[in-house]
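Help wanted!
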Amino acid sequence: MFDKDRWQEIWITITHNKSRSVLTAFGVFWGMLMLVLMVGAGNALEEGMTSQIEGFATNSCFFESQRTSLPYKGFRKGRRWDMTNSDLPVIREKVTNMQYLSPVLFARGEGNNVVRGEKNGSYLVKGCYPEYDLIEKSKMLYGRYVNDIDIAEKRKVCVIGERIHEVLFQKDEDPTGKQIRVNGIYFKVIGVARGTSGVSIGGQTAETVVLPFSTMQQAFNMGNIIHFLAATANDGVPVKVVQDKILEILKQQHQIAPDDKEAIFTMNIEEQFKMFNYLGIGIASLIWLVGLGTLIAGAIGVSNIMLVTVRERTKEIGIRRAMGATPRDIIGQILSESVVLTVLAGLTGIVVGVGILRATGIVLSQGDQFFKDPQISFTMAVGSLIILIIIGTFAGYIPAQRAMLIKPVEAISEE
Amino acid sequence: MIHIRQLHKSYHTEALSLHVLKGLNLDIEAGEYVSVTGASGSGKSTLLNILGILDSYDQGEYHLNGSLIKNLSEREAAVYRNEMIGFVFQSFNLINFKNALENVALPLYYKKVSRKKRNIIAMEHLDKMGLKDWAKHLPNELSGGQKQRVAIARAMISNPKVILADEPTGALDSTTTLEVMDVLTNLNREGITTIIVTHEQSVSDATNRIIHLKDGMIEYETRKNNGVHDMIQSVNF
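Answered by r_m:
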């Protein structure tokens, strides 16, 4: 099997019949190239998706008030309503499986609402609880996030996004302790945040000013209303359980018909994430199905062309037999040729494919976030090699059988 | 060297069965120089294929160098062919993508001789045929006579006991025919049993014994005495 001489003999046969070898091998080359490109692209898509959701608690759910769609307890349908502070203790008490709960307020001032001296910009203002940072995780570049004492004392402090820091402050200037004006009121900067996820509620973290929730309600005369509610479930508890319970409580608290599906907008990230996963699995299966299909088609091509080739080589094989080649020698030769061709073609396919993916990766590294670092794993490459050897053996089997049946006398009498 | 007793061989197709060899007896001693002639259909090619263990036979016995050649597996047949017999064909049967040297060395490859060693031996044989300078040429770059000499070198490389030549000059002009026959005659003089199937009289005349086949039997044979065959009736063929 690992006789050097034998491989030389095969190599001579392959290289001295270049066009035949190239034609035979092309199908497998193409199949492998397609498989690598598609798997690479699929991985990139998945990687892109995952990186979008990374840093965002996948066990979270969200609620926002909408108009009611059903009349209930004397209220007409189409009524506007708001979540309020009084909902929070009820939810905390009744939803036992809940991990974190944070109400959120949004405000976007007129024009350039965030000002420091001469510099200003138009940014989203968001009021949050400290827990919010555990749901939509941010990286603190300076200082700290909002804490419980800020909430309790309704301190006039703020966390600014990375981009706001760049606009309002000098590069590398520590902004903590500095005052900025947000929607007409001065707040002391306590930190600079950078988003860690592609997903964020309301707007990008980099362009958001975060105030303590209680401070925001009071400072901007928002009464006791809540715009948005974010909650997470305890580990091991499906988010759906927490989500349904909170929905039920909110409906009770605000006289909303239990079967009103439109009054509360709600979203379950876990289910979105699952969908992402299923989508990923779906794409991957499709890729493997198509890729392996192409590869098998390539292998059948190899088998077919080798069959034709064996016919064409009847004379050569007959001569070899007359010169003392045993049937095993012939089978070995045809099988080895098939495997060598398949593996060479497959490896070329992998190398070209990886090269294309590399090039694409470099081009894409600047831009599009949904398509990130297209690459295939080393395991896949090694796995493919094994698959190729198996495919090559199968592809060569029938032609080898056919070749073995050639009698030397047939070959020689053929003119 | 070759002892054949009551050899029968038939070919069967769906439509008809053809009794080609009908109880043939033949003895060829080591070192003989023999030609087999006969009309087409007389069974000479069949006989040669059986002698070369390229084909099987139905009845009788065939002893080659003391071994009974009967009901051999493909593998055993391959080994005998490799060790005992050198073939020379009308259409040369060189492998067209291998150069002269590689073609000559091929039987040694199946004898598991290392590449280096077999190339050296092959070169010696080519040299003997006066083709040393053509070693790296592909068959289609050689003339007919050169190709046949390459084929003879290939037949000789495994030091066979018997050379079987099937119309070795059938594809050659008269000058090259003489040239190739000289080569074969010289080989025979070195002691190799040589059997040539031919329908050319100039070829059979060069051999020492002519066997005339007719309808699967030996019709008659002639032996050379003082350089002349004593019966020349074969002109009619």
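OP: Thanks! One thing I noticed: The helical segments of chain B are 44-51, 74-84, 100-109, 115-128, 144-156, 174-189, 201-206.
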